[in-house]
Design brief:
Elements (H helix, E strand, L loop, with lengths): L12 E4 L3 E8 L3 E8 L3 E4 L10 H10 L5 H10 L10
Antiparallel strand pairs: 1-4, 2-3
Length: 90
């Protein structure tokens, strides 16, 4: 996978996607009922970035939080959806 900071170097990452599990509960009065639980996705970074020098912990934090969008991209998406950016505070 590409480094989320410099996007030039390849780093080794183990990714465990989120999974939805089902649990069945049976009672005498209510019958059977199903509950659903979704686990979080987990990133295990195996090495530091050789290009920009970011550590495993910094890379893992960026993968969990995501890349922040810049202001111009947000305004462009708002205009595409038909919203007026002047009336909404960012």
């Amino acid at each position: 996978m590409d480094c989320p900071f410099c996007e030039k170097a390849k780093i080794k990452v183990r990714h465990k996607p989120s999974v939805i599990s089902t649990k069945r509960t049976v009672t005498a009065t209510m019958g059977s009922r199903y509950t659903y639980h979704q686990s979080k996705e987990v990133y295990e970074v195996l090495e530091d970035c050789p290009n920009c020098g970011k550590t495993k912990e910094e890379i893992k934090k960026r993968l969990i939080e995501g890349k922040p969008m810049d202001r111009e991209a947000v305004l462009k998406r708002m205009r595409e959806m038909g919203l007026d950016p002047a009336k909404i505070r960012l």
